[in-house]
Amino acid sequence: MFDQNRLSAWVAGVTHQNPLPLRLELWNGQAIDFSSEAPRVTIRVPHPSAARYLLRPSLSNLGKAYVEGDIEVRGSASDMIRVVNALARSTLKADGKLARIVRHFTHDRRKDAEAIRYHYDVSNAFYQQFLDPDMVYSCAYFEQGDEDLATAQVRKIDHILTKIRLRPDQTLLDIGCGWGALVLRAAQQFGARCVGITLSRNQYELARERVAQAGLADRVDIRLQDYRDVRGTFDRITSVGMFEHVGIRHLPEYFGIIGRLLAEDGVAMNHGITTTDPDNGETPYGGGEFIARYVFPQGELAHLGAVLKAMQQGNLEAYDVENLRRHYARTLSIWTENFEANAARIKDLAGEKRFRIWHVYLAGCAYAFDQDLISLYQIVCGKAGRHPRSLPWSRRYMYEQ
What we know:
Blueprint: H1 4-17, E1 22-25, E2 31-33, E3 41-44, H2 52-55, H3 59-67, E4 72-74, H4 77-91, H5 94-97, H6 109-120, H7 124-128, H8 149-163, E5 171-175, H9 181-190, E6 193-198, H10 201-213, E7 220-224, E8 234-240, H11 251-261, E9 262-275, H12 287-294, H13 304-313, E10 316-323, H14 325-341, H15 343-350, H16 352-370, E11 374-383
Parallel strand pairs: 1-3, 5-6, 5-8, 6-7, 8-9
Antiparallel strand pairs: 1-2, 3-4, 9-11, 10-11
């Protein structure tokens, strides 16, 4: 049976520690405000059994309750995430409050392909509702800070291709090519000959259409292929937003494969999300658990130090490391705004449950990047022990037009 006194004590404890712009609407019609400030978020608890989620309000518990329809939440996603994080900080005990669990998954070709299909093969129309016109599903690059999303995504791609000093007729492998934006740009503007690989059939089919429409079928080859099955040698290799699916224990193998595929004087660049926990733990308060359950099955984040170690174990040397955490926080904020602006269409395309998952996922990630709970690094690298003749001595070339 539900204990009303326990709920009242929890409300009193939270409001004493951290008054919030939150209203709680109970099944019996009672409304409880957590501060004198006008509520920006309302949580409706439609039946007594759902109150248990509030008494231990981890991001995983409340996220599950929201997604499964056990509670209703009104308010913008960014306000929801701020309030829920505050509830977790005010409630969870010290021994668990900041704990960042290290979780490892078993990775093989079948499981990795299933995880990719689960996340990416929702529908291309779904992603079109919140991404830029080129459908670049990774951190944008805001050179001045005030660019629109489409401009910032083109600048990100150009920033990457300039960093690796891509030249006409060089061969480029893009691991996890998405809907083809990077390889199309590399062929059109840099004159490269490109191979893009993905495990998502939706991405594969649309990327091939775009290549054909651009008249670049002779310079861009899109493949439905696992990175472990690629053969050949490439002058340049890029991997953007893909290595999070590899698994921490498999990173040395992953970087070793990149090294094997890379030409002797070749240059590679890995662009990916990292945890800020030195022990490779997930985001705190159960955020990582929610994402693993509903968004990115099999996903694992490594700390930058672990990434650089694995890169060295894979016989690669890091030449340059750049932190783009602030850029991803802004990218995700724009995606969240676009998502909310197109809410009706997204619900039609993906259903109410998936809408709720992505609603909190996008805003939650924006918050996590903003608060330095996760980060993102671009690492330029090459075969260890070589003298990269293709790269200038200074970093100035990265910013020259």
